Amino acid sequence: MEADFSEIRNEMQSRDALWRRIQLECQQLHKELSKIREYKDMQEIQIKHQSVSAQLTEQQENTDTGLLLLAQSPQHQEEGLNKIRNHLYQEEQSHFSEQERIKMEISDLTEELHQKEITIATIMEKASLLERQLKMELEIKTKLLAKQQLLDFQYKVIKSENTHLKEMM
Prior knowledge:
This protein is mainly alpha-helical. Helices cover about 100% and strands about 0% of the residues. It is found in: Cytoplasm.
């Protein structure tokens, strides 16, 4: 009976250790999630900064080009305007492509974050299920142990009565 009780205690300890490991993993996943969110926020700030910087650079170039055009003859001004329009169009396309790439990257990071949240929820659900199973098994083993103790007691009583009856005979 003591061996059974010891076995139950050992099993409970190993399951408790498993539960603690699961909780630790959940904490680590939460930390990772926070780091990903911080990284995403930093990227958004960097994107805004780059956008403002690009706009200021573009405005500076347009001003410089405009001044050069004023200094040139009308024929050269038309050629210069066409070059500026082409350059501006290429810059807009490049800027648009960069924005799309950044949107895709943010979308990928968001998806990764979502997947990690799902993983955390799944682990928590499994941990909760394991905890419930562990409690149920503990209850069952405790009841079986109590029943075993009762049977042992009854056996000793019957054995004692049997011995007593044999002596009387």
